[in-house]
């Protein structure tokens, strides 16, 4: 089985619609794909309706968190999307995205960069607006060559010249809320240092004690040495190890299925979940 447990659609900051995502996942030879848009489950219904035969969909979301000033992401799988406390927290995070993006545009304008809020809103489309959309506007303006080049201290990285913070959930609260909603929690790309500061291993140990299920080890932002270190940490803490593409369509160079999760780990994730179940494909269009 080929299993990719971290993908984004136009419901947040990917470039494939949810329907395109699942069709592309099947074409890439995946057996299981997770839709984990940022702080939203809005793309799930479209993905389910279009789900090709022989492809299974894992419903989820990537939750925006912050600990001691460090931004981090929590992958939440197979939770009840209507559970009121987790739903309220996701809405609180999402509602803060628009003023945050507008603030980044204002800072860029102060720096002499000719991007507009209308441009960012057009790029985001129906998706939940975020930094990658502002980064795409910088690419359109010819300020940086790629989206990744916008995530530096010069521009949009944490603490950068045009950075604006937003409401982010305490990760211990996120773990509690996801568990309350019957879901499973995996810490996304925990050592992606090129994105900015990362949390210390002691914090990961504390999250494990609070109910964290796993860490995403095999990821484009982790080199071989980092993966080996994280595998050792996961074994020490009794955490599951996942691998995922973190696919964003054309917004990133990584391909669907470039990194995958072991079938036994996937089986354990589905066994632990009680809020929702993987959706088998029925040949949707």
List descriptors.
about 280 residues; alpha/beta; eight-stranded mixed beta sheet; about 35% helix
Secondary-structure map with pairings?
Blueprint: E1 3-7, H1 18-27, E2 32-35, H2 44-49, E3 56-67, E4 70-77, H3 84-95, H4 97-110, H5 117-124, H6 131-140, H7 171-180, E5 184-187, H8 201-209, E6 214-218, H9 224-237, E7 240-243, H10 263-272, E8 279-280
Parallel strand pairs: 1-2, 2-3, 5-6, 6-7
Antiparallel strand pairs: 3-4, 3-8, 4-5
The percentage helix is 25-40%
Q: Quote the distance from N terminus to C terminus.
A: 23 Å
Mean pLDDT: 94
User: Based on DSSP secondary structure assignment, what is the total number of beta strands?
Assistant: 8
Biggest beta-sheet profile: 8 strands, mixed
Runs in which pLDDT lies below 50 for 5 or more consecutive residues are: none
SSE run? EHEHEEHHHHHEHEHEHE
Q: Which strand-content bin applies to the residues?
A: 15-25%
**Number of helices in the DSSP assignment:** 10
Radius of gyration: 18 Å
**Shape category:** globular
Describe the structure.
By secondary structure, the chain is an alpha/beta fold. Helix content is 36%, strand content 15%. It has ten helices and eight strands. It has helices at 18-27, 44-49, 84-95, 97-110, 117-124, 131-140, 171-180, 201-209, 224-237, 263-272; strands at residues 3-7, 32-35, 56-67, 70-77, 184-187, 214-218, 240-243, 279-280. Strands 1, 2, 3, 4, 5, 6, 7 and 8 form an eight-stranded mixed beta sheet that branches. The longest helix is centred in the middle third of the chain and has 14 residues, at 97-110. The protein is globular.
